[in-house]
Design goal:
single chain; mainly alpha; 2 domains; Arc Repressor Mutant, subunit A; 6 helices; flat
Amino acid sequence: MQDAFLAALERIDSFQSGRSFAPWLAQIVVNRGLNARKARALRHTEAIPDDVAALSTLPDRAAEQAEIRARCRAALNALPEQQRIITELFELEGFTGAEIAEVLEIPAGTVRWQLHEARKALRGALALYATEQP
């Protein structure tokens, strides 16, 4: 967030005074978040040593949760970019359809349709795994 605010401050002269400030700032935040995710994906990590004990989650439950997260992430990543962004903003970040439409500068109807199509695709992609749960 700090990076986004600094970027907004650096680019405040590009803000058009007749437009709403919130969508302009939200677009900067979204772009910075996408850039941060891409940068994080490029980082290398080291494996956790085997002698480190988990403090809260049992290993089998942690593995199950990691597998579910990986399946959901893979299903999200398989979506077209606009559907993925809209779904993440709506479902994970809590934006409303109108806010997403304003930030992405697309009609609200398009947001609703893309979210509908994304949910349909996710249901199809994850349906196989729903029957595996006890």
